[in-house]
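Q: Fold this one first, please.
A: Sequence and structure below.
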Amino acid sequence: MYQDIIYDFDGTISDTYPVFTEALLILLERYGIKDSYENAYLLLKKSVGQALKSYNFNKKYSEISNEFATIHNEIAFKKQKPYPDALLLLKSVVDAGKCNYIYTHSGALVTELMKKWGLSEYITDTIDSTLDFPRKPDPAALNFLLNKHNIVKKSALMVGDRDIDIDVAHNAGIDACLYDYENYYPDVNAEYSVKTLSDLINII
């Protein structure tokens, strides 16, 4: 049904949020701020930016954001892992003669992790923050990817774990699938919704 599958990375291909949460709790401890793992996790599921702005660090947001990124990068390469069925899904797409793409707000670490996990060979192209596009749900980056690879919109599917992934897909005029195994977004209006990545194989 779909020829070109575009995935968000954090929370979609990568089980990132436990590592995000660990990094945030380390950051909070540095500034004498206390919070529970559960609440920090919930804030991060909305967005890293919103989570950081929820606390009073008495510092510029840009400084706190950079400090969080440094902490995360230090532990991510050691601890971050893909979802168990990510390889199965990506390989199934390629074996069917179709293409996988990554579109993420994260930076160069994504490419490093994909290589480490043995997933890079199944990815045709990656759009990350080093390209400096407006953030989701602005469709500029997604439209750039579609145009670069001459992707027909009706054959493209965006897969992500948050509402902004669905919104950016619709803003670009393509279908979307919500991957939400923890049921954080029950009211998001996506064409499809799955609880495991392997469920996508039957859709695409």
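Q: Good. Now the second chain.
A: Here it is, same layout.
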Amino acid sequence: MIRNAITKKELIEFTYHGYVRIAEPHVYGIREGRRQILVYQIGGATSSGKIPDWRLMNLDEISGLRVLGGQTYPGLREKSQSSVGDLDWDTIIASVK
């Protein structure tokens, strides 16, 4: 589901750490031995209160994931070094082109 959302550049909605979030999925892969996604959160709620912003999420901590079919985003965004940094992925399964 995440791979298709990345390929089609469709928004996703999910619950993470008790907050419903709406985000653009940008990278899905394995990092430090865990399946993770790098998203640009554009809606919903977050403990930091900072939206929009980049988030790195552990897939095993996500629930209620759904693709918001027909709601797309333009594609790549400039990554902020302060929030994302240079992430070292073990394996990239899908990423926005």
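Q: Anything worth noting on the second one?
A: The chain has a mean pLDDT of 91.
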